[in-house]
Amino acid sequence: MTVTDATSTDPSAVGQARFDELLADGRKVEPRDWMPDEYRKTMIRQIAQHAHSEVIGQQPEGNWITRAPSLKRKSILMAKVQDEAGHGLYLYSAAETLGVSRDELNEMLHSGRQKYSSIFNYPTLSWSDMGAVGWLVDGAAITNQVMLTRTSYGPYARAMIKICKEESFHQRQGFEIMLTMVNGTAEQKAMAQDSLNRWWWPALAMFGPPDADSTHTTQSIAWGIKLETNDQLRQKFVDMTVPQAEYLGLTVPDPDLRWNDETGHYEFGAIDWDDFWAVVKGDGPCNRERIAHKVKAWEDGAWVREAGRAHAE
Amino acid sequence: MLSYLLRLADDNLVLAQRLSALIARMPELEEDIAIANIGLDHLGQARNFYSYASQFDALGRDEDQFAMLRSEREFVNAVLVEQPDVDFAHTVVRQFFVDAYQVPLYEVLAASTDETLAGMAAKALKEARYHLEYSSGWVIRLGDGTSESHERCQTAVDTLWPFTADLFAGETSDAELIAQGVAADPAVLRPQFDRTISAVLAEAQLRCPSDPYQRLGGRTGFHTEHLGHLLPEMQSVYRAHPGATW
């Protein structure tokens, strides 16, 4: 057939056919495989955003390392924040396989052209936030990341396998902080409730806009980048987390939250998407500080990096 | 013995506290990871020494009570470790001086007649050797890097040098522990420290400090003013909730 002849002489059409075949067979796309430009761009954007989130995510928890209330907690928190820097490194390496350099990605973060998870634009205001961040934020992240261990781009999927193992440890240590707090003094319990009140809604928003408004979801699912939609993942997280809050004896700050026997899921109230978009667009409580902190560290380190290069020459 | 162990522990805790404040502020992600790693090692060493010190303490204080409930005047760390992180050169040079001291210290203590202490030191020695490799590597890179890095590194060396003798300052009660082969004799450690310093500074093309002035006092709680800022921050949550479990 003429159509077949035409495609076999066009290298990108051959590539496209092979790419489609890889996806159809559930095999991984590897760095040397042909891939559509848009797939490459989407992958770079997503991996970079994830890497930036790990790096910026060091700040809200780093905020409490020097004040951790016991040496054991200090040690666990330092190790956790160090893990995040390590995750940032793997992910930048995964992004580099797509033909973009770490310096370029760094520059795009600093200039605001690439984003990081909006959750890190909220402040950590008490020690129990270290519990809530681990329990809710890492819990939400894992829900998303478990799916990503099966994503179609090989280097990303493999990085996620390693990252997920560490994240589930982070989530458990966060829950354990909460458990210790709710079994502690009245003040500690109040702190834990306050943390849940402040982190619950931002954690639900971490899954992104509702499916109906999500511009990327359909394409990402077609390409095997995402295997579940934002709303599906959000529901999974709510179903998993509400019983944990009950176990802690804490109240989820949602008057509309109720169990639905028929669906076998929790129903929950409406998320304030105006607030979500305001934070995404740069008007959250900490957006400016987070980037300013990152840029300052980078600029303060310029002479050190230069010295390293000069010495190597 | 309590006093000796507290000095070992406090050096490590105060340094760990300094390093922990630098996470997410380093020149590269790799350095963030390295500095967290080194800080975690020092924190782990501090915790071991405090736990052991607990056995010799009439008040039976645990590691957190040692760390969180003692005042500036009761901390017995060397004044070097409390010096602030003015820039990356100060961080690296302070680390280098500490490492050049801790490697021979832990070598001697690993052979201590006190088996518990010897075991702790043997583990710490492996860490200290890695730290020395890291810090001396950076001192050399900065000294032999650009003119700016050379200058900054020389400034850090000159500024921090007067705090180094305090590392070796002991107490009269140490004599007995040294005689029993439990503690390390500072006089034995000093030559190896000096050799490491001159070799690395020479390779880094940095001047060995010639200023004879030395600021002592950390071992008796006579600190520089910096410690009085570091401790309240570290102790704030613990002290705000007396008796709470974390």
Q: Brief description of this entry?
A:
Chain A is mainly α and 313 residues long. Chain A is built from 14 helices and two strands, in the order αααααααααααββααα.
The profile of the biggest β sheet of chain B is: none
* Largest beta-sheet characterization of chain A: 2 strands, antiparallel
End-to-end C-alpha gap of chain B:
29 Å
What share of the residues of chain B does DSSP label as strand, in percent? under 5%
Which secondary-structure class do the elements of chain A indicate? mainly alpha
Query: How are the strands ordered across the major sheet of chain A?
Result: 1-2
User: Radius of gyration of chain A, Cα only, in angstroms?
Assistant: 21 Å
Instruction: Give me the CATH fold name of chain B.
Output: Ferritin
Q: Which geometry of chain A do the CA atoms define? A: globular
Number of domains of chain B: 1
In quaternary terms, these chains amount to heterodimer
The helix tally of chain A amounts to: 14
Write the topology of this structure.
The complex is a heterodimer of chains A (313) and B (246).
Chain A: H1 2-9, H2 11-25, H3 37-56, H4 58-65, H5 71-96, H6 102-110, H7 128-148, H8 154-182, H9 186-205, H10 217-222, H11 230-248, E1 258-260, E2 265-267, H12 273-283, H13 287-300, H14 302-312
Antiparallel strand pairs in A: 1-2
Helix pairs in contact in A: 3-5, 4-5, 5-8, 7-8, 7-9, 7-11
Chain B: H1 2-20, H2 29-54, H3 63-69, H4 88-109, H5 115-143, H6 147-160, H7 165-168, H8 174-179, H9 186-203, H10 227-240
Helix pairs in contact in B: 1-2, 2-5, 4-5, 4-6, 4-9, 5-6
